[in-house]
């Protein structure tokens, strides 16, 4: 049966961030993910996880100056030392937040290619950075993810499709480097949600969802999520599916779609 993780960056925005852990538990979740832990101390986050009996599934590496529009720095020449410092910072949170049986996945947003930059050089820098991050995270049993992003939401993002991600994984050559397969981004970029999943299943380390258009909850757009999620189960996907959508209405009401899957609770 599908295991769902509440994405606390987008869900329960009715509450301050540290109160969203309790809200997720009350809504029936046993696992959470979010984009960035870094505004909060590892101790405060660990306390929330332990108090509410939650597992930390995923967070991102530091991604540069988000407010200024950066969406990752792994492709940026001259930022390699900053990238490595970000890996070290992420490891501090991994150790604090890890479940005894399952350390959290760490996702790398690779970034946007600057205007006029050489794509070949950017790829060389990216491969070098991913090799370093995969090696360091691998020492503590952590899987590193890379996420293709659709070109409509983030124009200029360097990694756009799962096929490109798979080729990059081959070039990096690290066993603990996988794809974060976001069904929303895939639908906006290429479609073929299930064909792509089946073709690359052994490369996929995590799945996320939202409906298209609008990036709201399943049932608000064009994706037949009961069918898609049943197909993932049938294919033997055993990881979590992160609910990374913007609720249309309040968060608790937005979870009503789970009933169509026959789920008693979203764990």
Key traits:
267 residues, globular, single chain, eight-stranded parallel barrel, alpha/beta
Overview of the molecule:
The protein is α/β, with parallel strands linked by helices and 267 residues long. It has helices at residues 20-26, 42-51, 80-97, 119-138, 162-172, 183-189, 193-200, 225-234, 251-254; strands at 3-7, 31-33, 55-60, 105-108, 144-146, 177-182, 204-209, 240-243. An 8-stranded parallel beta barrel has the order 1-2-3-4-5-6-7-8, surrounded by 5 helices. The chain starts with a strand and ends in a 13-residue tail after the last helix.
Radius of gyration: 18 Å
Strand content: 5-15%
How many strands, what sense, and barrel or not for the largest sheet? 8 strands, parallel, barrel
Helix coverage percent: 25-40%
Outline the low-pLDDT stretches. Answer: none
């Amino acid at each position: 049966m599908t295991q769902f993780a509440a994405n606390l960056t987008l869900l329960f925005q009715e509450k301050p961030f540290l109160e969203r852990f309790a809200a997720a538990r009350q809504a029936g979740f046993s696992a959470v993910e979010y984009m960035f832990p870094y505004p909060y101390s590892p101790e405060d986050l660990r306390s929330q996880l332990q108090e509410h009996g939650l597992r930390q599934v995923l967070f991102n590496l530091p991604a540069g100056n988000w407010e200024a529009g950066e969406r990752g720095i792994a492709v940026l020449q001259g930022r390699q030392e900053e990238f490595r410092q970000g890996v070290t910072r992420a490891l501090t949170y991994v150790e604090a937040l890890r479940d005894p049986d399952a350390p959290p996945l760490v996702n790398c947003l690779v970034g946007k290619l600057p205007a006029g930059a050489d794509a070949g050089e950017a790829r060389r820098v990216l491969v070098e950075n991913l090799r370093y991050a995969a090696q360091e995270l691998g020492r503590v049993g952590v899987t590193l993810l890379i996420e293709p992003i659709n070109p409509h939401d983030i124009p200029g993002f360097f990694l756009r499709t799962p096929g490109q991600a798979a080729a990059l994984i081959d070039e990096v050559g690290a066993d603990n480097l996988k794809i974060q397969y976001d069904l929303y981004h895939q639908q906006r970029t290429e479609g073929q949600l299930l064909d792509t999943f089946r073709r690359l299943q052994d490369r996929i380390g995590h799945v996320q969802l939202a409906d298209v258009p609008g990036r709201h909850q399943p049932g608000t757009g064009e994706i037949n999520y009961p069918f898609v999620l049943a197909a993932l189960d049938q294919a033997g996907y055993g990881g979590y599916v992160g609910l990374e959508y913007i609720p249309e209405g309040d968060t608790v009401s937005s979870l009503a779609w789970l009933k169509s899957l026959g789920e008693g609770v979203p764990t």
